[in-house]
Each structure stands twice: as structure tokens, then as C-alpha cells.
Amino acid sequence: MQEELTNVVKAHRKAEYPVSSLFLNRWSPRSFADRKVRDEDLYAVLEAACWAPSASNEQPWRFIVAKSDEDLKRFDQFIAPGNQLWTRRAPVLVLFVSATLNQKGQANRFHAFDTGAAWANFALQANQLGLVTHAMGGFDKEMARKLLHIPDEFEVQALVAIGYQGEKDALPEQLQARELPNGRKPVSERMFEGTMNV
After folding, report:
1. Using one digit for the tens of pLDDT, what is the confidence trace for 60-70?
2. From which residue to which does the signal peptide run (predicted)?
């Protein structure tokens, strides 16, 4: 059954071509409600991420999860101040990292690409469960590596906040105007036939 677009998405997004509402309804709010994420739901989201396509079935993605007060405080140390304005209300933070070597110890050229696919599955499954996600690059990767004891053969990719959507007015005033789904450029500006003529 085709799911309907949410009201806020209807007001701000329109696809050029027919696609499932699953893709349009997913966006990246910054406001999180004061509500815990059930372990069963978090694990379901991680399970969906693990079913992403993977070159040679290497499954290079790894997820470092912070949900206890102690772990959330540790993560807070490497998050950029501008993002701390809203990440401190998120009940769960997940750091995506990827194995840069394959099972034979050789370079895996597709580790970042595959981990990006895992992130997409993660975000879409979260949305299906009534959760929201917001991925960010505004954090200190080297500090994250040090504080979380991430080995050199793993690359730090992105940090994701996950929880239930909160009210816009719970955000600092400077972020409230941005608390809307954004649009996308048309396919025609992103597609090339045959060769990439720019």
C-alpha cells in the first residue's frame, strides 16, 4: 500500500517523477523529543542497515552507538559547537565507520560507497518506524577516533542522531527557520548520457 506524504512534506517537496513516498517523507530534522528509542527499534534500524548492498559482500560498515548518559557525554566532546545546540537532545547517536581493508587485508575501494548505502537503509527504516535521523559531518574525526578507540584501518564516515521528532520551537531561534524538508535539484541537472559533459 502506498503511504501518503506527510503534510509538512507535501508543502515543501514535489518529485519530478513518481517515486515512493518513503523517499520524500524522509528528511533531517534537528529537534528531538524527550523520548527514549526502544532497543527493539534501534536494532531493527541497524538490521536494515546491514542488509545494504556490499561489494564482494564485505559489509565494511560498523556502528558505534551512544545511548547511555556516559556515552552521549563522550560523543559530545567531539561534536562541533553548532551541532551541539541540537544533538544534546537526541537520545541516540551513532557513528558510522568503515573497514578500509577487505578480508584478505587488501584495500577495499568501495568501503565508503557501501557504508553510504547502509546509512540510506538506516535512515529509511528509521522513518518507517516513526523515528527521524540527522546525519552530520560537523565533528572532529580525529578526536572521535581517539576517544572511541577506533583502529587505523577504519575510516570515520558520519555521525547520525536518531530519535523522535520534537517541536520546532524547542530549537534555538537561529535553527527554527531551517526545520523544514528541503528540495532536490532536478534529475536533468544530475544525469549525463554517454559522457559527462559539464
Report:
1. 999 999 999 99
2. none
